[in-house]
Task: inverse folding
RNA sequence: GCCCUGAUGGUGGAAUGGUAGACACGAGGGACUUAAAAUCCCUUGGCCAUAACGGCUGUGCGGGUUCGAGUCCCGCUCUGGGCACCA
């Protein structure tokens, strides 16, 4: 009887459900192990072959840990809020929840086919009120908190208010948007609205004015990665910069802790490096420059304090408030014109064409080290958002300053001995400092850096600056606060209402604030977000109820916030919720959190390196500060599964038209490539009718064909719903079975490596399972095992396998494990072995990889319990001893004579035997033994010299 | 530009500094079969040689360390990823 994977997999899937095989409870008698996958967004395209790669890898690990006796938590859920469902709702009027639930059900079906050991009783969905209750709760807690820079943790905002009431801003240790200074009396005189505004400067969740990527067509703000070359990825609509008042999270306050935490977790170096870059810590100094003939002064930030003597001009960011202050009346017109001009250009445009632009303000700053007057310019190469929005320009040692100086003919003073600055600046922080001060100039202060190395000079200057009160040492971070508002419908609503324009939190006991019903999912006619359509979206403060908008009287009934939270809100603390998913009194109970601690193994893609994986760490640290999470870092070990790449197809839209031109002719037009669903493309030829029906905006599309066909372009890239190149695993499961799919995805190559999806080779894995079946069963389906003690060869073969598989799983080298299984099976076949003990061990070893088949074999071998609770075998080193050692003799490192040498002993004995053997002696004559190298159980290498 | 990866047959990929190319796919040959499918066996980095044993060469390029380098060090080239007027 053949290996009937369909029946076997169906049978075991049912059995697992009936027996709740994968249900897990806290059990203090067992050690815990928490395995987690980044939960998927349930897209309409369904699960593709790339998703399971990580799930299978973690499933194998989870099963392996369970076999080792750990109490394993391996949950799964859905990141259910997202733009695609909303877009679909806009197009069809179908409520996103319906789409989402349908997609989730589809995902679940697909996941169930692959045989994962998820505990579905712990499923979470971010769009479920019982879940987003805690997302809203965390947001409110952040609103009611500030970051204390002395204690280095979040604290209740009440403490900050108490401080302001007593001492004003004096002695205040709080991370702030901008440094403010006022007294307790000034604070007390402010009205509620003013106080609220001031507190926004400190709250961890705050309302702030920020520049955003605004897409008018989509009526929403887009994240940077949703915008490419000034147009939205989805739809290709133009995106503009716009200043908006929105909710923000003070992630920047946690910069240092996010950086330090990286030292305590087991992630790849490259991922840690990516996060370090993103956080972008730079140590430098803030230095105060006085303005000439004025009592004004301003501060600049520099990491090159050593270059103080090379400053030849100053530059302000156009958005800087200093611009107005420092512009002289004569220059006012020019400067204002310039500032207006830069406003029109987006940040993107400014970066693309690196035109050197700028204007002189008319003012001069006095360099505190040279006493020289440096002209103050305005230029858009200086960013308002970083440092102080003002810089000192050292053209000799900064390439941007250099270009600017060359363009406007400003002086350049070299400060490093022997550096060549005739063509470009010398940016390296190496060399010996000179011209500091210059020999031809009378020293302004008693301070010299000449002769020091750059590093020494930086330290010396910082020291001087601190001592003389002209500045201080300062650390800057590039990490920006997260913008937390979205002008969308399908997301968590903010539990906030506005009382006379002052944001108020809806009482905690009234959470969750449910997402209201709307009849349109687009922005309103007045440009408000979709929640503006909600009829029942007002808060009755007395009744503590959501009521109809028409009841708003601004006395007891107030409007509710119209924004919703972004995708990362729901995914930031879901790992905590899995520990205690049904708790309706808190996010996670103390007991559950203390038992499960944090995630031991987290598996997911690198694409989340600067998004989810930063936000989640931030969110967890915040909860940790209040004791809601016992561990400061959420994910102890992280494995990045490589992306399974897909083969995408493109159509080429002629710019500003609805005409598409075939690949061969696209060179003659100005075109934008747009991804097209691979399912409506066959051999790179587009099905035009299917394309027209694909999206409403293409209904009336026109085509320029070649040879009567529309030929699409292609590329190998990430398999993703947004690239429309998704391949589903269902077909593979149907044809070969889940166990083959699991084995094959692991066999494809290292888990962490990206590779394009390719079904060549899947036969090999399937063949292996069939051969495996045939070693247990004869043609009639009868078990053919022998009860005898295993032979020496059998023991060697199986213990080799135990060792290999055990170490491979620990190292996530699943591909070589699969090879080891194949080798061992071949050996057993050669030995014509049907030994029961050996076959039992084989089935257990294979259980993490091919659970259905292993269960079937385990049962056939007479076991009544599930193979999941078998004991992971230990290997015995003594069976693995090689009994042949290879020996090599090298003469002056030139010749080598390989020979075999029978031995079963330790290194010292091998060495002795090797030197005394008859075989060797004839070679030793006339030579001195330089050294003998014994590679245990493998090679003896005798090095000889004349 | 900066940071991080990686580079091995026709392909995916194996190799704690110790016989490079495991394992699998593909290809070629053979067995079984009326035939096909399935299955099994053999060959398969390149070059040379052969009745046969075998020999040379070979892990992106150039150096170095070592008895011994795909692996370690230095300098390049290219691939992929991240960041990017961040002072």
Result:
């Amino acid at each position: 009887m053949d290996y009937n994977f369909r029946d076997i997999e169906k049978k075991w899937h049912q059995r697992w459900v009936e027996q709740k095989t994968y249900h897990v409870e806290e059990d203090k008698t067992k050690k815990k192990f928490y395995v987690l996958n980044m939960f998927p967004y349930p897209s309409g395209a369904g699960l593709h072959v790339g998703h399971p790669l990580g799930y299978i890898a973690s499933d194998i690990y989870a099963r392996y840990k369970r076999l080792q006796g750990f109490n394993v938590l391996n949950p799964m859920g859905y990141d259910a809020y997202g733009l695609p469902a909303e877009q679909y709702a806009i197009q069809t009027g179908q409520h996103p929840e319906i789409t989402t639930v349908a997609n989730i059900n589809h995902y679940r079906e697909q996941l169930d086919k692959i045989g994962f050991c998820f505990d579905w009783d712990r499923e979470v969905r971010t769009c479920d009120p019982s879940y987003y209750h805690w997302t809203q709760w965390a947001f409110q807690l952040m609103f009611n908190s500030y970051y204390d820079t002395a204690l280095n943790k979040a604290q209740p905002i009440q403490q900050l208010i108490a401080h302001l009431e007593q001492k004003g801003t004096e002695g205040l240790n709080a991370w702030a948007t901008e440094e403010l200074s006022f007294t307790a009396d000034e604070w007390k005189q402010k009205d509620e609205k003013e106080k609220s505004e001031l507190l926004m400067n400190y709250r961890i969740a705050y309302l702030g004015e920020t520049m955003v990527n605004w897409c008018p067509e989509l009526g929403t703000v887009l994240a940077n990665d949703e915008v490419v070359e000034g147009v939205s990825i989805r739809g290709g609509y133009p995106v503009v910069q716009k200043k908006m008042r929105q909710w923000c999270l003070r992630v920047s306050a946690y910069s240092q802790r996010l950086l330090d935490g990286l030292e305590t977790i087991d992630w790849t170096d490259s991922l840690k490096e990516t996060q370090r870059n993103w956080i972008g810590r730079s140590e430098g100094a803030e230095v105060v420059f006085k303005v000439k003939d004025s009592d004004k002064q301003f501060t600049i930030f520099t990491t090159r304090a050593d270059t103080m003597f090379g400053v030849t001009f100053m530059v302000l960011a156009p958005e800087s408030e200093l611009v107005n202050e420092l512009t002289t009346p004569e220059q006012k017109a020019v400067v204002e014109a310039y500032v207006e001009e830069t406003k029109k250009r987006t940040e993107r445009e400014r970066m693309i064409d690196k035109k050197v632009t700028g204007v002189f303000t008319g003012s001069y700053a006095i360099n505190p080290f040279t006493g020289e007057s440096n002209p103050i310019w305005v230029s858009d190469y200086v960013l308002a958002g970083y440092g102080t929005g003002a810089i000192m320009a050292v053209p000799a040692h900064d390439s941007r300053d250099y270009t600017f100086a060359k363009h406007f003919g400003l002086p350049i003073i070299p400060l490093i001995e022997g550096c060549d600055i005739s063509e470009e600046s010398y940016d390296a922080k190496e060399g010996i400092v000179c011209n500091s001060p210059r020999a031809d100039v009378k020293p302004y202060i008693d301070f010299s850096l000449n002769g020091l190395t750059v590093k020494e000079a930086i330290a010396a200057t910082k020291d001087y600056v601190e001592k003389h009160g002209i500045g201080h040492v300062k650390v800057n971070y590039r990490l920006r606060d997260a913008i937390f508002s979205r002008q969308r419908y399908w997301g968590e609503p903010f539990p906030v209402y506005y009382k006379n324009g002052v944001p108020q939190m809806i009482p905690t006991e009234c959470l969750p604030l449910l997402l209201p019903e709307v009849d349109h999912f687009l922005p309103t006619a007045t440009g408000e977000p979709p929640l503006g359509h909600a009829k029942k979206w007002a808060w009755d403060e007395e009744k503590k109820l959501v009521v109809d908008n028409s009841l708003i009287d601004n006395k007891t009934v107030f409007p509710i916030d119209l924004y919703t939270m972004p995708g990362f809100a729901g995914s930031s603390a879901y790992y905590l919720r899995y520990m205690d998913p049904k708790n309706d009194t808190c996010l996670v109970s103390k007991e559950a959190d203390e038992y499960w601690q944090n995630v031991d193994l987290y598996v997911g893609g690198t694409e989340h390196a600067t998004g989810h994986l930063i936000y989640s760490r931030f969110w967890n640290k915040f909860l940790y500060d209040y004791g809601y999470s016992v561990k400061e870092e959420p994910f102890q070990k992280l494995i990045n599964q490589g992306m399974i790449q897909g083969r995408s197809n493109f159509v080429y839209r002629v710019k500003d038209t609805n005409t598409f031109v075939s690949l061969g002719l696209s060179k003659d037009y100005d075109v934008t490539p747009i991804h097209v669903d691979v399912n409506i493309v066959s051999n790179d030829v587009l099905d035009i009718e299917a394309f027209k029906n694909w999206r409403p905006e293409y209904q009336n599309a026109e085509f320029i064909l070649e040879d009567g066909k529309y030929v699409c372009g292609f590329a190998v890239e990430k398999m993703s719903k947004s690239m429309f190149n998704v391949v589903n695993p269902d077909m593979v499961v149907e044809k070969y079975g889940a166990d083959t799919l699991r084995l094959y995805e692991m066999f494809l190559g290292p888990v962490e490596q990206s590779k394009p999806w390719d079904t060549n080779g899947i036969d090999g894995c399937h063949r292996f399972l069939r051969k495996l079946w045939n070693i247990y069963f004869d043609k009639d389906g009868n078990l053919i095992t022998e009860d005898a003690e295993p032979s020496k060869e059998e023991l060697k073969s199986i213990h080799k396998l135990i060792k290999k598989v055990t170490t491979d799983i620990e190292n996530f080298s699943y591909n070589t494990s699969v090879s080891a299984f194949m080798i061992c099976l071949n050996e057993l076949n050669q030995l014509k072995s049907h030994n029961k003990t050996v076959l039992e061990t084989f089935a257990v070893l294979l259980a993490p990889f091919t659970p259905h088949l292993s269960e079937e074999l385990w049962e056939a071998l007479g076991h009544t319990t599930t193979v999941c609770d078998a004991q992971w075998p230990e290997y015995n080193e003594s069976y693995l001893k090689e009994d042949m050692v290879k020996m090599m003799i090298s003469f002056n490192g030139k010749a080598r004579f390989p020979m075999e040498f029978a031995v079963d002993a330790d290194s010292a004995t091998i060495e002795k035997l090797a030197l005394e053997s008859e075989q060797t002696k004839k070679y030793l004559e006339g030579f001195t033994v330089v050294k003998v190298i014994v590679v245990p159980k493998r090679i003896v290498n005798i090095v000889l010299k004349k």
Remarks:
- The longest helix of chain A spans residues 792-811.
